[in-house]
Amino acid sequence: MSFNFTPFVRSHFVSRLRQHARYIDHAAAVQQGELVDLIETAALTEFGRRYDFSTIRTYEEFARRVPLHRYEDLRAEVMKMVGGKSDVLWPGVTRRFAQSSGTSDGRSKYIPVTETSLRRNHYRGATDAVCHYLNLNPDSRLFSGKGLILGGSFATELQAPGGVSVGDLSAHLIERVNPLVNLMRVPDKHIALMPDWEEKLPLLVEACARANVTSLSGVPSWMLTVLQRVLALRGARSIHEVWPNLEVFFHGGIAFAPYRTQYERICDPERMRYINNYNASEGFFAVQSSWETEAMLLLLDVGVFYEFIPIGQTDADTPDVLPAWEVSAGQTYELVITACNGLWRYRIGDTVTVEQTRPVKIRIAGRTRSFINAFGEELMEHNADTAITEAARATGATVANYHAAPLYATDDRRGRHQWIVAFNRQPDSLDRFAELLDQELQRANSDYQAKRAGNIFLDPPEVIAVAPEVFLSQLAATGRLGGQRKVPRLANDRNIIGQLLQLAHEQADT
Question: What strands lie across the sheet with 96-100, from one edge to the other?
Answer without folding.
Answer: 109-112, 96-100, 165-167
